[in-house]
Design a protein that fits this description.
146 residues; mainly alpha; 6 helices; flat
Length: 146
């Protein structure tokens, strides 16, 4: 199952971008708080799993139950691999997952409707995009400014 396209279809591209970037940022913060320095998008990917788990927890039906069960198994496998393989940043995974689950609980799981909601979604998406661009700019300044 490709979880990213499913979430993008539910929330729209702008909200999806916001969710991906924000859960990655929370994964990074959790990792840094516990003294780890790592690079990657695994915090964001776990954030998407958290969002999807939140969605399946508030919807009923056999399809949602099966999907929820599959997501929980993914989390079990990821946790096992995370504790067995050296260098896995479990704090980033936890931070991404928890922030994704919370976002999934508070954000409506549908495309933005109405002018105000669409504008808010676009602002969230552009804010996330700008945060990524600024992060790269600061990274390059730090690298070349030595």
């Amino acid at each position: 199952m490709d979880i990213g396209p499913v979430i993008e279809e539910l929330y729209g591209s702008a909200r999806y971008c916001f969710i991906f970037v924000l859960t990655g940022a929370f994964g990074y913060v959790a990792s840094s708080f516990f003294g780890h320095n790592s690079v990657g998008a695994s915090g964001s990917l776990l954030g998407l799993i958290g969002v999807m788990l939140a969605i399946t927890s508030r919807r009923s039906g056999i399809g949602m139950q099966m999907l929820r069960k599959q997501l929980i198994w993914w989390l079990v496998y990821i946790a096992i691999i995370g504790f067995v393989m050296r260098g896995t940043d479990n704090f980033a995974h936890a931070g991404g997952f928890v922030s994704g689950f919370l976002l999934g609980k508070i954000m409506p799981d549908r495309q933005p409707s109405g002018v105000a909601e669409q504008r808010s979604a676009r602002i969230l998406g552009w804010t996330a995009g700008l945060a990524v661009a600024l992060s790269f700019a600061f990274m390059l300044l730090g690298y070349f400014g030595r």
